[in-house]
Amino acid sequence: MTFATLRERWPSFAGGFVVLFLGMAMVSMSVLALASAGARVPDRLAGTPVFVSVPMIERGEGSFAPDRPWSPEAVASLTERLGEIPGVAHVVPDRTFYAQPVIGGRPVVSDRGYAWSVAMLAPYTLTAGVAPRAGEAVLDRSLGLVPGERVSVLTVHGPVTYTVSGTVDGPGVYLSDAEAARLSGGVRAIGLVTEPGADIAAVAVAARAVAGGAHTGDGRSVLETREHERTRWIGLQVLTGMALLSAFVSTLVVGTTFAVGVAQRRREFGLLRAVGATPRQVRRMVYGEALIVGVIATAAGAAAGALLGPVLGDVLIAAGFEPPGFAVRISPLPLAGSFATGVLVTLVGVWSASRRAARVRPLEALREAEVDDRPMPRVRWIAGAACCALGLAAAADAAASDGSDPFVMSGLLAAMGVIAGLALLSPAVVPPVARLVSWPLARGRGATGMLVRENALTAVRRTAATATPVLITVGCAVLITGMVQTTAAGFAAVRATTIRADTVIVPDGTPGLTDAAASAAGAESSLFSAVYQPDGDPLSAIGATSELLERAGDAQVVSGSLEALRSDDQVLVAEWLAEDRGLRPGSALPVSFEDGTSASLTVGGVVREADADVLLSRELLRRHDAAALATEAYVAGVPAPPGPGARVVDVPTYSAEADAEEDRLVWIATVLLVAVSTAYAGVALVNTMVMSAAGRVRDLAVLRLSGATGRQVLGTVAAESVLVVLLGTGLGLVVALPALLGMRGAFATAMAADVPLVVPWPLILGVIGACLVLAACAAVLAARPAVRRG
């Protein structure tokens, strides 16, 4: 095929080009971001060439459990032995803690504190003043404070006033080593500051012999915080979903584009067969056309993705899907992979269309009418029926759920199966549904209504090709957004009914509550931390009182009593842990704490639904974890003002806001996927309208010759597109809403509470409105040239 031929047939290929361009731009951006999203050396540790760290456990997918810290005795011994290594100038245990300056009555964004000796590990320098002593602090110069000023700093115990002794050109609050040791938890890494000219490799080998593990160069990235690791993992899920969705939808739309093109060119293929072209030659011609379009579109999309990659990186950081400092790097391998993906998507998408073109018989050259009277392929019937059967079976399973099995997955499979089945069977499903929906038009007196109805019923493939992307988009949007919002509302409803308190104190611009804020006016709070088994495996731990657990409704006692938390040497263990370790009341549980010390605790009871593996007294946990913050505090009565970094809310407000950050990330990811799918649906709609217009020139000319004005003809075309979009919308709602109701019922059973059905109708109406506007405008604009010629 020559480029001149491609130019002549450009309207038939424009849709596929645009979809591949957008899809491969999205794929290349996502792949570049994924390739750039690996762990990185923390900025505050980048100035030190060698680090030793505690043994790191093997964590499963999505697990961000901390590693067991060294004991204080081990830190002292390692510091002494590492300091004897030739070439080592300083040995610095990495001590961090919570410290958040309050300026202008509000906590600032930075909330990390460090021992002053840790400043040697970073490429930061003292820009003014001197090192801190007792009662003094060195702060980031960007805060605008100068040496000699007084500043209030929130610590785990509450606000403390320090004198600014100096400033540095980096983030954080630096206190004296003695004060930092009192506020920090256990030590998990030790930095080795080397002398000028020291052999780094030799120092690392010697350190490895002493501590068992040493990290240099990019290997220091293992020191990344668990918070940043979790953020990167969330971003990985979002980027992978975007890339897979883009590739999948691109394949479907490219296949639809060439399928419609083949249907419009059956007479041309029949002529080729009549003059001696073989089926293989016809198939090769279709593949050649697709490859020319695919290669150009993919190359352009990959280039656009490379240009827009840094913009995507900034968006991911702002949304909370990547940690600060993340940047998308341009590298050839991801771009080459994106290009290969685009070519593969093109070949897969055009496979069915090429086979259909090769089956055109020479007698098709005699066809004049373009009536869609060809039956669906047998494979499509089988695949569509199988998807519907799978979906109905999953729906039955979800409906019969008592809330103990994975009903959400069953509901998703039910809806997705039926949506996919209806999409495959659309040429057979659309006519009867269209006949039912357009029945009021047939009862009207005007000719426009009759024409709209008959055109929708006669042009089955065009109607199905237009309704299918709307069906998929609206169905998936209602299902996914409704599931996310209903789940969030369900958890909030359950939380509101189980909490027995008048008000709740929650963080305000801080990562948690200090002890002073949490105890305001007699409020009770718990602390979340971790303890470690003898083999190093972590167990989540909550420090609380029996009264607080009863008030929060957080734990169900299986054996023993919550009163065990009144003793510092007793713990309550989760039911799974008791079964796995053979524990019962009176058993011994040896553990290590966050400060590295060890103890043998007595099991005082077994609980379920406690939100942690181990429950112990709040005083015991605070004694061994000086850095833990409370997430909320329950108040009976009216509390006193809690001070900076905290605010008082009622129970319904707290219930709705408790998982606000998690809900925000999930909702952003959900809206992003809906936006991407809506964009592809819009391209598919425009593509179908433009390609269909080329085959309707004679029909529109006949309408003009019959006396219809240009405005009437264009109004008829727009009405047809609106009818078909409403048809796809109705099918999407019919599929999604019952599945969503089934999931809501099973969720309500599982939570033993009244869970409201929440569907974000403004967003759904926006999706439908976008489809309506795009379809109507594309249909009118594509038909205008033919109407003018008529």
TrEMBL record:
Subcellular location: Cell membrane
Any Pfam family: FtsX
Record domain ABC3 transporter permease C-terminal: where: 242-360, 672-788
Record flagged with keyword Mitochondrion: no
TM spans (from-to): 233-263, 290-313, 333-353, 381-401, 407-430, 470-494, 665-692, 713-741, 761-783
GO cellular component: plasma membrane
Molecular function terms, GO-annotated: transmembrane transporter activity
Entry keywords, A to Z: Cell membrane, Membrane, Transmembrane, Transmembrane helix
Membrane topology category: Multi-pass membrane protein
InterPro entries, sorted: ABC3_permease_C, Macrolide_Exporter_MacB
Keyword Transmembrane helix appears in the UniProt entry: yes
Cited PANTHER family: ABC TRANSPORTER PERMEASE YTRF, MEMBRANE COMPONENT OF TRANSPORTER-RELATED
Family: Belongs to the ABC-4 integral membrane protein family.
Protein name: ABC transporter permease
Origin organism lineage: Bacteria, Bacillati, Actinomycetota, Actinomycetes, Streptosporangiales
